[in-house]
Design goal:
With 362 residues, the protein is mainly beta. The protein has one domain. Strand 4 and strand 5 form a beta hairpin.
């Protein structure tokens, strides 16, 4: 789990002999923290927070009717009668399933009441909501900053108890394959590894998110994802590269800080039965698509009718490669490789939504 990352400098002073190295000194000391596991509905939020940089525990307010005007993300939204006020963090208004995701600042949203945007003046009547005290929809968005969220990570095993401070996520990978749990792997970079007092980890029951709970969609635009048909895929894999770099100043071998540079490449692939040329031609014609992976554990009910859910949205992707198997006497399967792009309309490259019973922020 913990791997010391040490850089050294060699003293090549000859001292009149042919021996190459006079001495070796440590000049930089960091820690690489790598772990992997099954995706569960609560813990994965910490990894997503480290990945995207900002998150809010919102109340989802469905809009069954029409919206008058245009709500603006970031504005205050007030609910009549209850008087509850919150900040609009995510607006899904262009598709068939309209909804406002609001982080509460005062009061308690009740649902089925008139909503008004404080800046835009837009109005809409909300539908039935989940109890804000029982269920939250955590919205994850990319923070436009090169200062990442950091964690203190502790490790405990029969040999030692260790920790690394100011750990920032460097890369994250998620894979959903038929017949298995959804898996993730993450790599953090942190300060120099240090011993710590004996740790006593505690564990809580959490809900798994598996391939049998998953659905995958593609559409020509983000607004078409709600109504799009589920595509019969057997594997989905996505990789995020945070493009992390350390900074070190005089006087120590320890690093001062970590910074992500540009939000690095988001790429992945899907595997499916090859029975049409539709996906092949997306590559040939350089056709853009929006993608959505939804993993909803419908075997578990939280609140009145919600399910533990992870949803990853890619508003626009470009396709890089199409391959297919050719084995005799076997089903022909195809793999489509993609790279996510910054979408001007949605103003992002990727976003995530996590539904669970944690009512506070990560």
């Amino acid at each position: 789990m913990f791997r010391p990352v040490v850089e050294t400098a060699a003293d090549e002073g000859a001292y009149g002999v042919i021996d190459a190295i006079r001495g070796v000194e440590n000049v930089k000391n960091m820690t690489e923290v790598v772990f992997e596991g099954n995706v569960r509905d609560n813990f994965i939020g910490h990894i997503l927070n480290a990945l995207f940089g900002q998150t809010w525990p919102t109340v989802k307010i469905p809009i069954p009717g029409s919206i008058t005007g245009t709500f603006v993300e970031g504005e205050n939204v007030t609910e009549t009668t209850s008087g509850a006020v919150g900040v609009l963090r995510r607006l899904d208004a262009g598709g068939s399933a309209k909804a406002l995701y609001v982080s509460v600042t005062s009061g308690t949203f009740a649902g089925s009441l008139l909503l008004t945007g404080g800046t835009s003046g837009a109005t809409a009547t909300g539908g039935t909501i989940q109890s804000p005290a029982a269920v939250r929809h955590h919205v994850f968005r990319r923070l436009n900053s090169n200062t990442p969220v950091t964690y203190s990570i502790y490790g405990s095993d029969p040999v030692s108890d260790d920790r690394s401070l100011f750990c920032a996520l460097d890369s994250f990978e998620l894979e959903c394959v038929v017949g298995n749990f959804t898996k993730f792997s993450a790599k953090f970079m942190g300060k120099k590894l240090a011993s710590t007092s004996a740790q006593t980890p505690t564990f809580t029951a959490q809900n798994p998110l598996m391939a049998k709970h998953a659905g995958f969609k593609m559409a020509s635009a983000f607004t078409g994802l709600d109504a799009a048909s589920v595509m019969a895929v057997e594997r989905f894999k996505i990789s995020f590269n945070k493009n992390l770099e350390s900074y070190q100043s005089f006087g120590t071998t320890d690093v001062d800080s970590f910074h992500n540079k540009e939000f690095g490449e988001i790429s992945g692939e899907i595997t499916f039965l090859y029975n049409a040329i539709t996906q092949r031609d997306l590559v040939i014609d350089s056709t853009k698509q929006a993608m959505r992976l939804t993993i909803a554990n419908t075997g578990i009910t939280i609140g009145s009718s919600a399910n533990p859910t992870l949803q990853i949205d890619l508003p626009s992707v470009g396709f890089r490669e199409f391959t297919r198997t050719t084995g005799n006497g076997e089903l022909v399967k195809a793999t489509l490789r993609f790279t996510a792009e910054y979408d001007l309309t949605r103003a992002m490259t990727a976003e995530a939504l996590l539904i669970n019973t944690k009512v506070t922020t990560y």
